[in-house]
Amino acid sequence: MAKISVSNLTFCYEGSSDNIFEQVSFSIDTDWKLGFIGRNGKGKTTFLNLLLGKYEYRGSIQTSTAFDYFPYRIEKEQLTRCMSDFLEELAPDCEEWRVIMELEKMKMSAELLYRPFGTLSHGERTRVMLAILFSRDNYFLLIDEPTNHLDQASREIVKEYLRHKKGFLLVSHDRDLLDACVDHILVLNRVTIEVQKGNFSSWWENKERKDAFQVAENEKHRKEIGKLKKAAERTRDWADKNESTKIGYDPVKEHDRGNGTRPYIGAKTKKMQSRVKQIEERIGREIEEKEGLLQDIENPADLKVMPLKHHKDVLVRAEKYGLAYGERILLQDFDLELHQGERVLLRGPNGCGKSSLIKAILRANGRAESSEYGLGSQTAATEAGLVGETESALRESGVLRTASGLRISYIDQDTSFLQGNLTDYCKKENLDESLLKAILRQLDLERRQFGGRMEEFSEGQKKKVLIAASLLKQAHLYIWDEPLNYIDIFSRIQIENLLLRYQPTMLFVEHDIRFQEKIADRVVELG
């Protein structure tokens, strides 16, 4: 066992005036199963890169261990090669037989190593890279969001595999995965950083208790400060009024006042002024004790969505619908009725046609003229396992209809089309820029990001742009395709609360099991 000691770590990106980390200190053990959580943009991936030595920083990071990182960077030319051919390029000290043993633990065939890497699914790529990662000795492993884009079956395999491993730092927003796989939590709070023993649920329970205590303490201090301020004002008024009687008096009305009255009044006034000073000192102590109480409390704003009411009950109908790319059949004799008010989850393994069905519904609703929504989009073709195929390879049969005049608000799982700044995006999408930015602030996107280019946003920040845009568009039906990939835990809970409150009609694909359980009132299985 070794330690990683971080002391007075300070870091900011070149050209930025805001520090990502400032005077941060903590210590972790390298045999821990460490979960790493925090809001999007707080610096999780940045910290991993600091451990890997990619950036210069102030302070110190001391350890005797070496680090390895998931996911490995795969070059474009490597996509056409088998993993066995370029294994040494990724991990020079890695032995192929040990990788095969790790694949067996995930119930995967060694044959994956001998297929062109570009033909592997997201789940297969993830498992191959994890097998390489854990086949190496004497490394502390930095695992960055391994379950994004994975279907439920693949997530379960990865979860079960990591459950029996140790010596890693796992960045994830998947609450189910964190509960199953970690024994310590490293949290980037709003201001502080904390390390705590336990999984996500135990940390969350402690946080809620701590937050409730701090809110109560803050209220107690606030009331005490109010009382003290009123007492100080009364005493100061008495002192001022008393002091004004020292000079000048009416001998007829105040016949009992003698030459000793003036020093008596002065002494009394001095005593009152001293009392004011004591009260002000108490106020200062109360304010000092109050400071910092609420600095790490997550108090997300309530999001709003204004769904439209349609005059028809059935918004989408499929009858004996079939969908295929070339010889690959995705859907056959598929029936669906999506009723107004329902929140329907499309569930199934990667490649079963979920995204392709969504694209088909968008097309049926008259949006095929936009390449972003076209059936032959790269997302749908990739899902079918036919990279490079286009709309010409598409075959449909049966009936797929949407209600007339149906307005749909859509979130694509792909964010690569986001380019330029937010102003450009709002003009392109015909969105109210001030309202979009207001929603992004409620989703905890920093104001300093508003002037930047979206290509430089983190994946979580890009997804927040798409979610904010979808919430702005009034619609009868909200179609969300994997909306929570890369979205932080706090924002996930915020979005769950929004959907449960306003209950818009939805058709969605999402592999976060906690989100599924809370939001879906009907599940349609594909594949």
Textual characterization of the structure:
With 527 residues, the protein is α/β, with parallel strands linked by helices. The protein is 39% helix and 21% strand. It has 15 helices and 17 strands. The protein has a six-stranded mixed sheet, with helices on both faces. It has a five-stranded parallel sheet with strand order 14-15-16-12-17, with helices on both faces. The two termini are 45 Å apart.
Quick rundown:
The protein has 527 residues and is of the alpha/beta class. The protein has helices spanning 44-51, 83-90, 96-105, 122-134, 152-163, 175-181, 200-243, 261-290, 354-367, 378-383, 422-429, 433-442, 459-472, 489-502, 513-519; strands at residues 3-11, 21-29, 33-38, 58-62, 66-70, 139-144, 168-171, 184-188, 193-197, 314-325, 328-339, 343-347, 394-402, 408-411, 477-481, 506-509, 522-525.
Which features characterize this protein?
527 residues, 15 helices, six-stranded mixed β-sheet, single chain, alpha/beta
Reconstruct the topology from this structure.
Layout: E1 3-11, E2 21-29, E3 33-38, H1 44-51, E4 58-62, E5 66-70, H2 83-90, H3 96-105, H4 122-134, E6 139-144, H5 152-163, E7 168-171, H6 175-181, E8 184-188, E9 193-197, H7 200-243, H8 261-290, E10 314-325, E11 328-339, E12 343-347, H9 354-367, H10 378-383, E13 394-402, E14 408-411, H11 422-429, H12 433-442, H13 459-472, E15 477-481, H14 489-502, E16 506-509, H15 513-519, E17 522-525
Parallel strand pairs: 3-7, 3-8, 5-6, 6-7, 12-16, 12-17, 14-15, 15-16
Antiparallel strand pairs: 1-2, 1-4, 8-9, 10-11, 10-13
Helix pairs in contact: 3-4, 7-8, 12-13
